[in-house]
Amino acid sequence: MQPMLPMEKYFGQFELVHAFYGAMPTGVSISETGRIFVCFPKWGDEVQFTVGEIVDGVLMPYPNLETNINNTGNSAMSFVSVQSIVADGRGTLWVLDTGAPNFSEPILGGAKLVAVDLSTNTIKRIYLFTKDVVLPTTYLNDVRLDFRVGRGGYAYITDSSSRGPGAIIVLDLDNGNAFRRLNGAISTSPDPYFLPKVEGKILMNRNPDGTTFPFRLASDSLAISPDGKVLFYAPLTSRQLFSISTEALRDRSILDMNLSQYVQYWGEKGASDGMITSEKGTVYAGDYENNSIRKLLPNGEMETIAHDPRILWPDTFSIGPDQYLYVIVNQLHRQARFHYGRDLRKKPYSLLRMRIDEFPAPTFSKRLQ
């Protein structure tokens, strides 16, 4: 009789919130009233709608199907390929549209940030970007918001380009002015010495013709401190975590070439896609190499809170008013582009949640409620 050999320890209690049998999701956000929103960028799957809401267990286009049908004559008025969605806790869903299906060059008017009023389910403002902000190589990836500064607040957006410079885009929500910061800086660029390994295998681009090339993506993960004063960020292909003062990001008197002096290094946190911050200042981040979720305390201590073989590429995180941490698990690394054209993903993709007993970090002060 063969002995029972020791096995790797798995831990973390998850609940399945929703199983996806269609297109692969990337983003999730829970509103202050508990509404669940999900997005599906156009990466090759048949995407019926790029933004949806889960209503009584059923996935519906949001705010409607018409908005999700790209009007090629006026892409600014419709969703093209949405990568991220963020409910701000004060009645608005912010939709970050890459305007770049299949990682193409962003189409004219397609790359944008859209504010949707959750009380009326209608678009109330669209922010477009100039050519010096959204470059031909830009891929808008994630967004964080703070309404405690400026007349209308600010948004911070990562450019996770695989072909050009990474950056953090700063957007004044009052006047719509935007500018790139840390453009091509070390902290927003892929780690050239990082070799990602997922499910025990090296992750790299593998084409159907047999050619291969490294998987490199710039600044992606993004989280903001509860007081809005610190922005945490990381390239997708890196295990390193960085932060910077949002005041320094907004201060254009600091030349971009000198801005890296304001960056703080937090060490290795694992290779993560999504990040989120709680009201206590805890940063939650995925570790896609190790099927894990970690939390980083304000004092720098780090703890793995979940390690489970079902966490096959933890993508976006959201913290709900129910004090649960929600995470999209989408098997991103099993896509055909990493396996010589063979799609190794197995449906369903999933939206999971685990109890953390913490509320989301606020985006506003009480006087702005």
**Classification by helices and strands:** mainly beta
Succession of helices and strands: EEEEEEEEEEEEEEEEEEEEHHEEEEEEEE
How many helical elements?
2
The CATH architecture would be 6 Propeller
CATH superfamily: TolB, C-terminal domain
CATH class: Mainly Beta
Which spans of ≥5 residues are poorly predicted at pLDDT below 50?
none
What strand order characterises the main sheet? 1-28-27-26
Q: What is the first-to-last residue Cα distance?
A: 67 Å
Main sheet specs? 4 strands, antiparallel
Q: Tell me the Rg in angstroms.
A: 19 Å
Average pLDDT value? 96
What portion of residues belong to β-strands?
35-45%
Query: How many separate structural domains?
Result: 1
Description:
This protein is mainly beta and 369 residues long. It has a single domain, classed as Neuraminidase. It has helices at 246-250, 256-259; strands at 15-20, 27-30, 36-39, 51-55, 58-61, 82-87, 92-97, 112-117, 122-128, 140-146, 154-159, 167-172, 178-181, 197-198, 201-202, 204-206, 212-214, 219-224, 230-235, 240-245, 263-268, 275-277, 283-287, 292-296, 302-307, 314-319, 324-329, 349-355. Strands 1-28-27-26 form a 4-stranded antiparallel sheet, with no helix packed on it. Strands 2-3-4-5 form a 4-stranded antiparallel sheet, with no helix packed on it.
